[in-house]
Structure formats: structure tokens, C-alpha cells
Specification:
50% of the residues lie in helices and 16% in strands. Strand 2 and strand 3 form a beta hairpin. The relative contact order is 0.10.
């Protein structure tokens, strides 16, 4: 019976406490049975173990509490190391003090929120107490596992294999959309040596690029009832491993998403030179498009050079050009910019407009906005910019500094989660949410 001041939540909490000892006992029995059934072979090389001895106890935390397992240990002559087959069978590494389910909780929470907060949330929701330092170490270890898994999957993809089921045959040809961008993350470069570096005339580096990309099939892009574009399925990449890392990871992700079967491909970016170079290298057959809103920003720059702070004249001049760029042709826009430049005397304004005119000439072939809209293609890079923003929410909180190893580990965890491959890192989750797998 519930007391007058208690609700269903109290009943749920009490029921969970009542059954926890039973669940812990059931998990211990199952774990012990699996340990007893583990064959005496090396889990690394498969060689038969010698000098076997039983009764080696190990205690670790599960989601239902602490359990102790008796295991058999043996020596692998091929590896030259002592091995415990039961540990591998149970998903436990030598240094892990927690079950795979708790390891997963630590990795997922740490990839979503600061570790100190994650430790509190984990205890509040599950009753599992994992100290901040331990949770941080566990999350980083899982992130390193995730990086090894990512490398393995990318290599398989390049060899023609895939972690996904074979693509279904489509009745209509489809187009692959690839969008690229980057954002900055703050790291502890030469931490504690800033003053010495400045005395030597060197400014310490703190901010570094996280290269980011997303890809999707055009036929998987639709609209809500209110007209907002939505994408039903897409792939994500975010890495601190430089342009080389992005190049390999983005290409593999696009292949997994169907690039090899696509009738055509389109790369959209904000105009950064590295984007077009990467596209030429990994997607040489793809068309390229400059993000429309970045093009508009360059029109605004011209307007400010022409009209200064006069907002009315700026808007009167700008609106027809934006409409023309979007619905007609960039050639007409460039012609008007050149006419405006011809009417300027030499000086800062003329230099600014010259720079923007050159920019429009350089990207002229990437400004096919009218054709793109008629084909139902995106003309902006909103999806990848949103991806950058969503990822930054975890990594750019006040007072947070990272190491390149730490941020790459958590970035890799986040991308596995977003790409629906979490179950490959934690196989026990496969049955929990098959829609993501």
C-alpha cells in the first residue's frame, strides 16, 4: 500500500530495491556458469593454455551490485602471458572493475555531459557509484576502443565490406549529398608553459580545428508539415585527426551510406579551400556548391563597402541581388558587382569590393542555386552546421580544456552513437533498440 503522500514513483523505487538482490544473484549465477564453460584457450591467439589453475576470484560491479566470479587461469606459450579466458567471455578487460553494462553507461554519459555531472546522474538514476576519476578513465578507455573499432570498420569498407546490411535495390537513382565544415576546440597545449613561451616570443596555441561532415541520400530528405527540411537517415563524422582523418573517415562513411550506388553526388561547403581540395581528392565526380548563405554574406560585405552604415540604402541594394542570386543567375549578380566596382575611386572600399568580386568569380561554378532548387537539392549547408553546433554543446562548456587524445576518444563515441553503431561497441545493447542498429 502507498502512503497518502507517496505516488507511483515511490512504488517503482521500492520495487526496484526489492528485486535488486534477486537480479544480482541471477547475474552472478549466469556469469559463473559462463566462466565455467569457457574453454582453456588463449582469447587473443586461440592457442591452448597450459599450467591451468582454478579458483581465481574476481569481484566487479554490475548494474545490480557487486558480484564475485571464480575463474581459471592458464599460460599461453605463444603469447608468453597468463590469460583468463572467462574474462574475455564475460566482456571484461584486465583493468576493468565494472561490467560491460556499467562500462556502457560511463561511456554514454561522459560523451553527453561533463564527467563530474555524469557521475552524479549515474548514481541518481541507477544507484551505481562511480567516482569522477574512475568514470573519466573508463570513458576514455571505451573511447579508445571506439577508435580501434572505427579504424576497423573504415578498413572493411574500403575493402568492399560494410557493417551494415547490403543496400536494398532502389527503383529510382538517387543522389548523395555530402556537407563539410569545421569548428574550434580548446586544448591544453604546453599547459603550464605559457609564460615561458610568451617570453620566447611564441603565443601558446589553445584552439584547434575539429573537422566535421555529414552525408545523406537526397531521397531521404523531406519536409515537415510546416515546411522545415528533415533528414530521415544520415551519416556523421567529427575528428581531431586533421584533414587526413576527415578525408578517410568521410569517404568511408559516404560509402557505407550508399555512395558507390549513387547516380551522382553533391558536395556543399562554406567556401573554405580545404573543402574543395578534399572533394577533388575523395569525391572527384561530385558537383560542388557554395553554401547560399555564405554567398549572401559576401554580398553584404560589398554593400557595406558601398553604403557604409546607411542601412536603408544597403537593404534596397541587397534584396534584389539576393533574389537574383537565388532564382536567376550568378552571372548577372557578378556583372552588377563589377559595375559597382567600376564606379569606385581607388581606396579601401574599392579594395574590399575587388576582393569580393574575385570571390564570386572563383565560386561562380558553385553557385547553381536555381538549378539546385528546381532539383529539390539543398542550397545551404545547414545540416553540417547544425551537426557542428550540437557537438560543440558538449565540448565548449565554460572552463573546459581537452587533450587531443581525450577529445578524439569522446568524439568517436558520439559518432558511433549518432551513426547507430553503438551496438558494435557494446554488443549487449543489440536487443535493446534494434531500430538504431
Amino acid at each position: 500500500m502507498l502512503a497518502s503522500d507517496e505516488n507511483l514513483g515511490h512504488l517503482e523505487t521500492q520495487a526496484a530495491q526489492d528485486v535488486q538482490p534477486l537480479l544480482r544473484e541471477a547475474v552472478q549465477r549466469g556469469a559463473q556458469a559462463k566462466a565455467d564453460a569457457s574453454p582453456p584457450v588463449c582469447p587473443v591467439c586461440g592457442h591452448k593454455l597450459s599450467r591451468l589453475s582454478s579458483g581465481h576470484a574476481r569481484t566487479f560491479e554490475t548494474r545490480f551490485g557487486s558480484i564475485t566470479i571464480q575463474r581459471t587461469r592458464g599460460y599461453c606459450k605463444r603469447c608468453g602471458k597468463w590469460r583468463v579466458p572467462a574474462d574475455a567471455a564475460l566482456g571484461l578487460e584486465e583493468t576493468a572493475g565494472y561490467s560491460p553494462a556499467v562500462q556502457e553507461m560511463a561511456a554514454l554519459l561522459a560523451s553527453k555531459m561533463p564527467v563530474e555531472e555524469a557521475s552524479v546522474v549515474l548514481e541518481h538514476l541507477t544507484g551505481i557509484k562511480v567516482p569522477r576519476a574512475t568514470l573519466d578513465r573508463e570513458a576514455r578507455r571505451q573511447g579508445q576502443r571506439a577508435q580501434r573499432l572505427r579504424t576497423q570498420l573504415d578498413e572493411q569498407t574500403r575493402r568492399g565490406a560494410s557493417d551494415k546490411k547490403p543496400l536494398e535495390l532502389t527503383l529510382e537513382p538517387y543522389q548523395m549529398i555530402i556537407q563539410l565544415d569545421a569548428w574550434n576546440i580548446r586544448e591544453r597545449d604546453n599547459w603550464g608553459k605559457s609564460a615561458a613561451l610568451r617570453r620566447a616570443g611564441k603565443e601558446p596555441e589553445r584552439w584547434h580545428w575539429v573537422y566535421t561532415g555529414t552525408c545523406f541520400r537526397l531521397d531521404q530528405r523531406s519536409q515537415t508539415a510546416g515546411g522545415r527540411p528533415v533528414i530521415s537517415r544520415r551519416g556523421f563524422v567529427a575528428t581531431r585527426q586533421g584533414l587526413d582523418g576527415l578525408r578517410e573517415q568521410m569517404h568511408a562513411e559516404a560509402l557505407r551510406r550508399g555512395l558507390g550506388q549513387a547516380a551522382s553526388a553533391l558536395v556543399i561547403g562554406d567556401g573554405a579551400v580545404w573543402i574543395w581540395r578534399l572533394a577533388d581528392d575523395r569525391f572527384p565526380q561530385a558537383r560542388q556548391r557554395l553554401d547560399f548563405y555564405h554567398a549572401v554574406q559576401h554580398l553584404v560585405a560589398v554593400g557595406r563597402a558601398l553604403f557604409g552604415q546607411d542601412k536603408e540604402k544597403l537593404q534596397a541594394w541587397l534584396k534584389p541581388l539576393i533574389k537574383q542570386l537565388k532564382n536567376e543567375s550568378s552571372v548577372k549578380v557578378i556583372r552588377q558587382l563589377e559595375e559597382a566596382l567600376a564606379g569606385l575611386a581607388a581606396g579601401p572600399s574599392a579594395e574590399s569590393v575587388t576582393k569580393e568580386v574575385n570571390y564570386f568569380h572563383e565560386h561562380h561554378s558553385r553557385m547553381d542555386y536555381r538549378a539546385g532548387r528546381r532539383a529539390g537539392e539543398p542550397i545551404g549547408s545547414g545540416p553540417v552546421e547544425a551537426t557542428c553546433r550540437q557537438t560543440q554543446c558538449r565540448f565548449k562548456r565554460p572552463g573546459q580544456f581537452w587533450s587531443s587524445q581525450g577529445d578524439e576518444a569522446l568524439l568517436c563515441l558520439e559518432m558511433l552513437w549518432r551513426n547507430g553503431r553503438w551496438h558494435l561497441l557494446f554488443p549487449h545493447t543489440s536487443a535493446l533498440n534494434p531500430a538504431r542498429n
